[in-house]
Design goal:
Elements: H1 7-17, E1 22-24, E2 31-35, H2 39-49, E3 58-60, H3 64-68, H4 76-85, E4 90-95, H5 102-105, E5 110-114, H6 119-128, E6 132-133, H7 148-155, E7 161-162, E8 175-178, E9 185-188, H8 194-201, E10 229-232, H9 234-244, E11 248-252, E12 262-265, H10 270-285, E13 291-295, H11 304-313
Parallel strand pairs: 1-7, 3-5, 4-8, 10-13, 11-12, 11-13
Antiparallel strand pairs: 1-2, 2-6, 3-6, 4-5, 8-9
Threonylcarbamoyladenylate binds next to strand 4 and strand 5.
Length: 319
């Protein structure tokens, strides 16, 4: 049965085909989409993001068949992951096909491919037909948007249209796995756990090495709020509150302390935490506090992706 006609989707697809920029929801975070086959559209995308031109962007597709046509070599491992995890929060890096221009890959010989699971993203990609380059719809280096309002707050009139799909269900970016050079490597932990990927592949994921493709999300201070932020143990958190009092805003597992006005209590499960993390960072960032104190989750595998983002959000601010 044909999908019901959705005027917003049709409008968005038309804008994209004419070289425009459209923000759209995915299950991870909102993406800022542009036609991946149109160099001028991609140039505009980089300008609006404020992203250096040697950083690659992920290309999104409605299904795996279309996605894998953008790779010149598709190892069995990639087919297997595509079959089992797509549509979903996974980006696979493969050797790029001839048609894939330098303007998408930052000059690298690889391309990042993803088939998102969000129904509106899927409908948009179907209506558009081709590949959509889409970095997270925030300015370079800042916290990713998980609602349409976050996108408007960040990009204002620089984005022609924001397709509103409500808050993102996963809340942090896709997991990036490099399958372009032999042993599979985890370039960025994210929405699907490393364990799940290892289970599908039947082998462990290696860490990125010197030759690993560049990932801007792996720069030390990425995903950062404006306010200095620090990651602390529960005990140190108490000591810092005693020292700094109401000059801080707090993101913690424990119940609010009355010495602090701005306190957000986070869920104790990693999925719930990830879902609310970026909205929480944005909210506390807007309070005008001097420093943002974050109680660290445990260093266990199920917290890997959240700890990665917290580490980057607090980079350069100690502890
Ligand atoms: O969940 C996500 O992945 C979101 C949604 C919108 O799909 N997108 C996203 O895009 O996080 P962005 O551009 O903010 O981060 C994409 C990361 C960057 O760190 C980039 O360096 C890396 O993917 N990447 C893209 N193509 C690559 C390639 N060929 N090799 C290595 N890394 C690549
Ligand atoms: Mg990003």
């Amino acid at each position: 049965m044909a999908e019901a006609r959705n005027p917003s989707i049709e409008h968005a697809a038309r804008l994209l085909k004419s070289g425009g920029l459209v923000a759209f929801p995915t299950e991870t975070v909102y993406g800022l989409g542009a036609d991946a086959s149109n160099p001028e559209a991609i140039a505009r995308l980089y300008a609006v993001k404020g992203r250096p031109s040697d950083h690659p962007v992920i290309v999104h597709f409605a299904n795996a068949d279309r996605a894998l046509m953008w790779a010149r070599e598709v190892p069995d491992a990639a087919r297997e992951l595509a079959k089992r995890v797509w549509p979903g929060p996974l980006t696979i890096v493969l050797k790029r096909a001839m048609r894939v221009g330098d303007y998408i890959t930052g000059g690298q010989d690889t391309v990042g491919l993803r088939v998102p699971a969000h129904p509106l993203a899927h409908q948009l990609l179907e209506a558009f037909g081709g590949g959509l380059a889409a970095p997270s719809a925030n300015r370079f280096g800042r916290v990713s948007p998980t609602t349409a309002q976050h996108v408007r707050d960040d990009l204002g009139t620089d984005v022609q249209f924001v397709l509103d799909g409500g808050p993102c269900g996963v809340g942090i970016e896709s997991t990036i796995v490099d399958l372009s050079r032999g042993a599979p490597r985890l370039l960025r932990p994210g929405g699907v756990s490393a364990e799940e990927i290892e289970f599908v592949l039947g082998q462990p994921l290696a860490a990125p090495d010197e030759e690993a493709p560049r990932v801007s999300g792996s720069l030390p201070s990425h995903y950062a709020p404006h306010t200095p932020a620090r990651l602390l143990s529960a005990g140190t958190l108490q000591a810092e509150i005693a020292r700094l009092g109401n000059r801080v805003a707090v993101l913690a597992f424990s119940a609010p302390d009355e010495r602090v006005d701005y306190w957000l209590r986070m869920p104790a499960d990693p999925d719930g935490y990830a879902r609310g993390l970026y909205a929480a960072l944005r909210e506390l960032d807007a309070t005008g506090c001097e420093v943002l104190l974050i109680e660290s989750p445990p260093s266990t595998p199920e917290w890997q992706a959240v700890l990665d983002r917290l580490g980057r959000a607090t980079q350069g601010h100690g502890q």
